[in-house]
Specification:
The chain is α+β, with helices and mostly antiparallel strands. The chain has two domains: about 5-115, Phosphorylase Kinase, domain 1 (2-Layer Sandwich), CATH 3.30.200; about 125-365, Aminoglycoside phosphotransferase (APH), C-terminal lobe (Aminoglycoside 3'-phosphotransferase, Chain: A, domain 2), CATH 3.90.1200.10. About 45% of the residues lie in helices and about 15% in strands. It is built from 13 helices and ten strands. It has helices spanning about 5-10, 60-80, 80-85, 125-145, 160-175, 185-195, 200-205, 245-260, 275-290, 295-300, 300-325, 335-350, 355-365; strands at about 15-25, 30-40, 40-50, 100, 110-115, 120, 215, 225, 235, 245. A five-stranded antiparallel β-sheet has the order 1-2-3-5-4. Strands 6-8-9 form a three-stranded antiparallel β-sheet, covered by helices on one side. A two-stranded antiparallel sheet has the order 7-10. Helix 4 (about 125-145) runs antiparallel to helix 8, helix 8 (about 245-260) runs antiparallel to helix 9 and helix 9 runs parallel beside helix 13 (about 355-365). It is globular, with a radius of gyration of 21 Å.
């Protein structure tokens, strides 16, 4: 379906007139475009997105969260670090002051400032970049510790409710609507054999040992922007799932997406494993970013959180494969099954190295918040 992109763009408070709108061919959920507007001799860029309101069923409430988060962070930085405040994500409001708008076809649209001279990466190969990415996600959690009430809206109920994800998988397996289960028997057996993992964090949270915090909840490596010149952390993006959550979910997603040199849909599973040097950099960066507010129980469950979040993502990819690829965008036959298999191999890699990885986390926090990379722009 074609959209009148220029007319949609004009509904927002942009500077000048739209001159170019270019689609961004990445991302599993939303449709994203880079908008260039001309204001006299000056050009200004923005990010325009069509929100997937099948996944995020209440875009206005989601945008209410995002406005609160971004304004809180920018307000704090205006006091502590004015130079970086302007490089934070900013919601561009509509002409009538709303955080998003709806077109005649029922689609929801939003716009953000474009962060210039910064980049995101789908995978990392350097330890300084891994350190900075983890530091930024830890910093992000710390910046939101004092977000005023009320609590943020839950944009996807039960997003990291792993027992619920397991139950949804089991129901999909029972019905097998697309007759695909036979092609995924090893992966199905792996999930069923390791189902007990799903209940561990839920039980620890219920006992009160681990607190609920404001977490990003989708702390993939490509959701942090690093300065294109210095490599230093700039800002955290893709804030749709920022809501109550657990610190180890964010650390776990970093491990899942940043420690493996292979792509998320890599078919050659011999390439899929945790690179220990990258994990060590993540642990040190997260220790620095969180700045001492994590509890002992949170620290001791960080590696388990990496294993669990990867297992959860395995469940989600396989559930979507069995359902007929209705949630994640796919670009080839069996794409979600390929993604599922990389996650399974990564869970196995984390489990095989769990003791040594726990040792690296303990050492990172014992060393305190000192910036061992000599870089800290916050």
């Amino acid at each position: 379906m074609k959209h009148d992109m220029a007319s949609i763009a004009r509904r927002f408070r942009i500077r000048g007139e739209p001159s170019e709108i270019t689609p961004v061919p990445t991302g599993h959920i939303h449709d994203t475009y880079v908008l260039t507007a001309r204001d006299g001799q000056r050009t200004v860029r923005y990010v325009l997105q069509r929100i997937n309101h099948t996944v995020f069923t209440d875009p206005p409430r989601m945008m209410e969260n995002i406005v609160r988060i971004t304004e809180h962070i920018r307000d704090k930085l205006q006091v502590s670090d004015p130079a970086s405040a302007h490089r934070q994500l900013q919601v561009i409001r509509t002409r009538d002051g709303q955080a998003c708008c709806r077109d005649a076809a029922g689609n929801f649209w939003r716009m953000y400032s474009f962060i210039e001279d910064a980049a995101t990466y789908d995978m990392l190969t350097s330890t300084p970049a891994a350190y900075e990415a983890a530091r930024m996600f830890g910093w992000f959690q710390k910046m939101l510790l004092d977000l005023p009430a009320p609590p943020l809206h839950e944009t996807i109920p039960g997003f990291h409710d792993t027992p619920r994800r397991l139950a949804a998988f089991q129901e999909m397996l029972r019905t097998d609507p697309c007759n695909r289960a036979a092609a995924a028997k090893p992966e199905i057996d792996f999930i069923l054999d390791n189902a007990a993992l799903c209940h561990v964090l839920a039980e620890v949270v219920t006992s009160g040992e681990i607190p609920i915090r404001i977490a990003h909840n989708d702390a993939k490596i490509n959701n942090v922007m690093l300065d294109a010149g210095t490599g230093g952390g700039v800002c955290i993006i893709d804030l749709d799932t920022v809501m109550p959550g657990l610190s180890m979910h964010d650390f776990g997603d970093l491990v899942r997406t940043a420690t493996c040199p292979a792509a998320e849909d890599e078919r050659d599973l011999s390439k899929v494993a945790v690179e220990v040097s990258l994990f060590d950099a993540l642990a040190r960066g997260f220790a620095k970013g969180t700045g001492g507010f994590l509890t002992p129980a949170e620290k001791s469950h960080l590696v388990f959180g990496a294993k669990l979040i990867t297992f959860e993502q395995l469940i989600r990819f396989l559930t979507d494969y069995l359902a007929g690829d209705v949630y994640y965008k796919v670009h080839r036959q069996g794409h979600n099954l390929d993604r599922c298999r990389t996650q399974m191999k990564l869970v196995q890699s984390i489990a095989e190295q769990e003791e040594s990885l726990n040792g690296l986390v303990a050492r990172a926090f014992q060393n305190g918040p000192a910036d061992t990379n000599g870089r800290d722009n916050r």
